[in-house]
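REVIEWER CHECKLIST
Item 1: Sequence provided? yes
Item 2: Single chain? yes
Item 3: Sequence as submitted:
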Amino acid sequence: MKKESWWMKDNHNYERRDDDSRNSTLRVVRLETGEVKVGIYNWDNGEYAEVGFPEYYVGGGRSPKVRKALENLAQAIEEDNKEHPIEKWLDVGHKQFLHNQLILNNQRRKREKL
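Item 4: Structure as written out by the authors:
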């Protein structure tokens, strides 16, 4: 699936709404630190949960196959969004929520490095 020339962009959200209810969104992002995160946002109750897989040089590296699978998932999301788009659903509030999540994650990482 993964093309050799394809690589995840830093701080770019690869997102796809679920096909059934469209009440949840799957999100994969690669932070500038190299950490790859995957999360799910539930539109019904506003909850968001994510897990991260950092690269080995920043304390991770124990899940290289998972990271590779998440990179492939991000590529699949991008391709599906181009080939089989779901209606435009990113409203201003959701974009702001995701932006705030990135800022909070970056601030937390900076504190952890101190």
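Item 5: Key structural point noted by reviewer: The helical segments are 64-83, 92-113.
Item 6: Recommendation: ____
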